[in-house]
Amino acid sequence: MKRALQSYHIWAFAAAFSWSLAYMFTRLALEQFSPLPLGFLRCLLASIFMVGAGIFTGMKPPRRKDIKLFLAAGAAGFAIYIPSFNHGFLTVTSATSSVIISSAPILTALLAMIFLGERVGKLQWAAIAVEFCGILVLFLMKGAFTVNSGILWLFLSALVLSVYNLMQKELTGTYSGLETAAYSMMAGALLLAFFTPQALRELKTASAGHIFSLFMLALFPSAIAYAAWSKAFERTRNTAAVSNYMFLVPLLAGLLGFIAAGERVDLSTVLGGGLILSGLAIFNMGKSAGKGGSNEEKHS
After folding, report:
1. How many domains does the chain fold into?
2. Which is nearest to 19 in space by CA: 295, 257, 252, 273?
3. pLDDT at 91 over 60
4. How far is CA 221 from CA 18, 136, 269, in A?
5. pTM exceeding 0.70
6. Is the pLDDT at 263 greater than 60, yes or no?
């Protein structure tokens, strides 16, 4: 088990699993909260959870020169990403959201090549294409895709999430995964603090169910997911290898939906899920076969 925790795979999967809960709880929370106040409350509560964890792990404070990096990460990963995701989610289906957000690993790989000089082999690009086709099969076979202005908000979410992924690689070179995620989350809450009055008004009239949805959003898709995600970047030098796990999120979200609703797994889930898992395996085969040390894991 200790050896498994040294690998980025288990942390990336934990983040993907936690993120898969976001679709269900975001939909429920948006029945009561507006997109921007919800983003603020989610970041604020997640920051409290992370600070609590940091007290027991000896989390060190950020260096003054790195504060601007955390503010940039907080803007990209939280202050822009979460509200734009919430805005998009208001007008499109969960299926459409999954397809659009799944462009983030592709954007991350492209940005890593341009700005970090990382190499993504032909076999790995083929694997990414297979995984994205799996996303399309998973949802388009159900005819659940919608086209409206919400798609633009979701594309913005995917783009800034890709930028956040790159910044994680920079920050986890100096800070632990928990420290990186916590200070980025705090920065996001600070940048969204303008919406505190509206958030408090909506919180006062929220039902127990809506508060529970908010709590779950802050705990799993926020605190746990982002801490595990940063830990994954801490464990490997390759940005694309970590971000590739984001393709699992729609599949896991669909499977959780089937379990929660007691439904049968349909053909689109079997075919789409098979393509996603095959693509993930092919990507890791290409990573192992690649030359050079850019794909190696870091151990401590």
Report:
1. 1
2. 252
3. yes
4. 5, 23, 22
5. yes
6. no
- Contact in structure between 249 and 16 (CB atoms under 8 Å): yes
Q: Is residue 284 part of a domain?
A: no
For residue 286, being part of any structural domain is answered with no
Residue 110 lies in a domain: yes
> Does 274 score more than 80 pLDDT?
yes
H or E element in which residue 254 lies: helix 248-261
Q: Is the pLDDT of residue 119 over 70?
A: yes
Question: Does the residue 291 lie in any domain?
Answer: no
CA distances from 241 to 112, 141, 268 (A): 11, 28, 26
Q: Is 63 exposed, middle or buried (0-12, 13-18, 19+ CB in 10 A)?
A: exposed
Sign of CA dihedral 74, 80, 86, 92: negative
Of 210-219, 242-251, 264-273, the range with the highest mean pLDDT is 210-219
211 is in which domain, residue-wise?
Answer: 22-127+145-242
